UniProtKB/TrEMBL annotation:
Residues 89-103 have a biased composition (Gly residues). It comes from Victivallis vadensis. Residues 76-103 are annotated as: Disordered. Residues 77-88 have a biased composition (Basic and acidic residues). This is RNA recognition motif-containing protein. InterPro entries: Nucleotide-bd_a/b_plait_sf (IPR012677), RBD_domain_sf (IPR035979), RRM_dom (IPR000504), SLIRP/GR-RBP-like (IPR052462). The keyword Oxidoreductase does not apply. One of its GO terms (molecular function) is RNA binding. Keywords: RNA-binding. Residues 1-79 form the RRM domain. The keyword RNA-binding applies. It comes from the Bacteria.
Length: 103
């Protein structure tokens, strides 16, 4: 089961996240989401536990508890919604630099 963990202290590490959940069962993985540009934690992450009963026990026990001065939000992760791709660059297509007729 994939578990969402939000409102985490930015200083929390993946090892601390894993340790917190391992009190309730076997943790398959623990991952913090980081900013792609800075590499800093964004304050949320995901924990994967193979046993649904252990995962539910962890959610019940940890949700709403304070860690690092912040009250954690813990629940079953929802599937990621597909978002439309953003067109990058400088306006893309025929817009932007140049565009229009040249004389």
């Amino acid at each position: 089961m994939n578990i969402y963990v939000g409102n985490m202290a930015y200083s929390m590490t993946e090892d601390e996240l894993r340790d917190l959940f391992s009190n309730y069962g076997t943790v398959s993985s623990a991952r913090l989401v980081t900013d792609r540009d800075t590499g800093r934690a964004k304050g949320f992450g995901f924990v994967e536990m193979a046993d649904a009963n252990e995962a539910n026990a962890a959610i019940e026990a940890i949700n709403g508890t304070k860690q690092g001065g912040r009250e954690l939000v813990v629940n079953e992760a929802r599937p990621r919604e597909e978002r439309p791709r953003r067109e990058g660059g400088f306006g893309g297509g025929n817009r932007g630099f140049g565009g229009g007729r040249r004389f």
